[in-house]
Specification:
Layout (H helix, E strand, L loop, with lengths): L1 E5 L3 H13 L3 E5 L2 H10 L4 E5 L7 H10 L6 E5 L4 H9 L4 E4 L4 H13 L9 E3 L2 E4 L4 E4 L2 E3 L3 H12 L4 E2 L1 H8 L8 H18 L5 E4 L6 E6 L2 E10 L7
Parallel strand pairs: 1-2, 1-3, 3-4, 4-5, 11-13
Antiparallel strand pairs: 6-7, 7-8, 8-9, 10-12, 12-13
Helix pairs in contact: 2-3, 6-8
């Protein structure tokens, strides 16, 4: 899951980035409202954290502008001001939730999880297909009740597909969702993470859930196996052509 963080206090921003990374979120950290607007309108984010007291463009005005532009991404406002009027102004501007500083990181994580759950098809926070399950609250992944130890990027890749099992992703779209703007990966790095996930699923007993499909231009998708509804396959673009 990808989060945009707008906080002008660099020390606090670093603390929040590390805390969110520990929860397997991908975070872009920006320090002013104008750049925040550019990132928010050009990136693929599941949630935006905005400090009210941003330079160049304050958080409440930015929130109003985003909502006026048709942005429906969940927004959580943060402020050092405990005044009810600012809280009301923020909610009226379109914010989904509000937190006062100093922040309690555990409460912040809980509120983020609550916002991210909104709009999900499944009524439970556990994401599962067949015998494979992923718990976003604990970042625990299991297959046949056996825990899988995934790297953060392997976890992010699996979560992306489990949250959108019928959506097709190109490699470029995967990079947009799972990497920071300032830290784009090499193509070989993306392949390595997919290979690592494949090997760990196979070792757990989920054999051939990730399969190469040659000649397709559409990319990656989490798809039900045609012969068994209990199996899942990830179809991967390889950039090759064959005669059908």
């Amino acid at each position: 899951m990808r989060i945009l963080l707008l906080e002008d206090d660099e020390i606090l921003s670093d603390i929040l980035v590390k805390s969110l990374n520990h929860q397997n979120y991908i975070v872009d950290a920006i320090y002013d409202g104008e750049n925040g607007w550019e990132y928010a309108t050009s990136g693929n984010y599941e949630l935006i954290l905005i400090d009210v007291g941003l330079p160049l463009l304050d958080g409440i005005t930015l929130c109003q502008r985003l909502r006026g532009n048709g942005c429906s991404i969940p927004i959580l406002l943060m402020t050092a001001n405990n005044a009810n009027t600012d809280r009301i102004r923020g909610l009226d501007a379109g914010a989904d939730d509000y937190l006062n500083k100093p922040l309690d990181l555990e409460e912040l994580h809980a509120r983020i999880r609550a916002l991210l759950r909104r709009g999900e098809v499944a009524p439970t926070s556990i994401l599962s297909v067949g015998k494979l399950s992923l718990n976003p609250n604990t970042t625990q992944v299991k297959y046949c009740e056996k825990e899988l130890k995934l790297t953060p990027k392997e976890y992010n890749l699996l979560e992306l597909f489990l949250r959108n099992p019928s959506r097709v992703y190109s490699r470029t779209q995967i990079v947009d969702h799972l990497w920071n703007f300032d830290d784009p990966p090499l193509e070989e790095s993306v392949k390595a993470h997919i290979k690592g996930l494949r090997q760990k699923l196979k070792k757990a007993g989920a054999i051939d859930w990730i399969e190469n499909v040659y000649g397709w231009d559409i990319g990656l998708i989490l798809k039900q196996h045609r012969l068994s509804s209990s199996m899942v396959m990830l179809w991967i673009k390889c950039g090759c052509n064959i005669k059908m």
